[in-house]
Amino acid sequence: MAKNNKTSLRNRKGDLRKLVILMNKQNKRFMPPFDPILNTIDLVITPDELDLLLKMGTDLYSYEEVAALSSMSSEKFNPIFESLKQKHS
After folding, report:
1. How many CA atoms lie within 13 A of 66 on its CB side?
2. What letter does residue 5 receive in the DSSP assignment?
3. What is the pTM (predicted TM-score) of this model?
């Protein structure tokens, strides 16, 4: 009986690849968008956080600009923003 080694991702694989490509544009080290890296990022980032990061791209924003870009209510945006700040620290 063969085992199914497929990992179930909570984020779309294509979006995770896009995030890795954006990260590569801002870093000196290249991180290939291979499955082990995508799986690791998927473990630590929620779909809402991923969507926000993809909307931001590689530009720099103020808190107000990111909040407006997100198109979310402050009740939804604030926890996501705070979570991303903690993950960055």
Report:
1. 21
2. -
3. 0.86
